[in-house]
Design a protein that fits this description.
single chain, mainly alpha
Length: 64
């Protein structure tokens, strides 16, 4: 989920306090780019690394 997804939820008056972007976990709130928009392997690696880091931090928080 990126900023546009969060905004879409707000536009629908969904204001649950536990709506997060994956980038909120270990990535300082960064938006993770859509991997389907990239064709270069290095760009895909960057997105993969961001997802891996965000999911790792999310899981660490869930198990804390």
């Amino acid at each position: 989920m990126d900023h546009s997804n969060v905004q879409a939820l707000r536009d629908l008056n969904i204001t649950h306090p536990h709506v997060y972007k994956l980038g909120d976990f270990g990535l300082s709130g960064a938006d993770i780019p859509d991997p389907y928009t990239f064709t270069r392997a290095q760009d895909l690696e960057k997105v993969y690394t961001m997802i891996e880091r965000g999911v790792g931090e999310l899981l660490a928080r869930c198990h804390a």
